[in-house]
Amino acid sequence: MQAAARAKEPFVVVPSHGLGEGALRAAGAGKATSVFPDSVAVSTALRSRPLSATRPTSFGRTAVGDMFGADYTVSVEFYDLLQAETDRRSAKRRFAEAAGHARHGILDIGAGTGIVTETLLTASAAPIHAVEPAAPMRAALLSRLAGLGADQRARVTLHPEPIERAGLEEVADLAIASNIIACLDPATRRLTWQAVSRALLPGGLLLFDPPPTELPTGREKVGRLGPVRVGPDLYGADITREPDAGIVRMVFTYHVERDGRVLRQQRETFELYPASTSEIGAELEAQGLQVVHAPSAGLLAARRPAR
Length: 307
Hints:
Blueprint: E1 11-14, E2 18-20, H1 21-26, E3 48-50, H2 61-66, H3 75-101, E4 106-109, H4 115-123, E5 128-131, H5 135-146, H6 150-153, E6 156-159, E7 172-177, H7 186-199, E8 200-208, E9 220-230, E10 233-244, E11 247-258, E12 261-272, H8 277-286, E13 290-292, E14 300-303
Parallel strand pairs: 4-5, 4-7, 5-6, 7-8
Antiparallel strand pairs: 1-2, 3-12, 8-14, 9-10, 10-11, 11-12, 13-14
């Protein structure tokens, strides 16, 4: 989570970044509309935790990082099967052109299972810094990299800690945060902007999905992912969201069916932190990042001023 994160057709948040774009879209009665007002799919990188877990008093990035041993342990099994194709199309549409202009390096914050990372590798010849603290997602990311050519793998540096602990200084002229910012509490989000500002070269660009701007009024069914057939079995997920003490709680219920019978069912939750566009803008400017026009609808953008 570096999660929320990814998808639907429905658009859902599956761990990575979190909500998958497909799952989120499912909320729009079949249309590719977001489940969150004024926002886009929250992705692969959503930070998650088991449904039975209790929320810690402080849920900052430090706490999240300490929990990564459990993050995505449910969702990682289903993520690529249910969301990869939707996320790949979205990544190409939103990030490929900007990646093609990167010359020095690209920062992939919350790389998840590597769908965006692979897109960036294809679109650019620049080195990639892939940041992914969650061990289950890193395992999927490394499996994806294993299937690529040695020349592409040589351009990827994997950072297994949160961005604010990675110690990156002026390594990239482009930073991507796909489906992750919504999963960060305000304190962690501000630390993330600070780390991104340090990691970008002067003139460097940041592209990211904005968090939701408001809470839902009650528990709502967001949509469904799948079904996707594997042999005799059908894999799918149902997604709901609800307000909970100032945050949006997304619940993914995964199920595997055979001959109309449910073989197994598992759930995982993701927490999203609403913030207004003006609030996000003020946080970015406080870290020396200037809000600029985003090249793709549904994204926000900021740039580190050139010297």
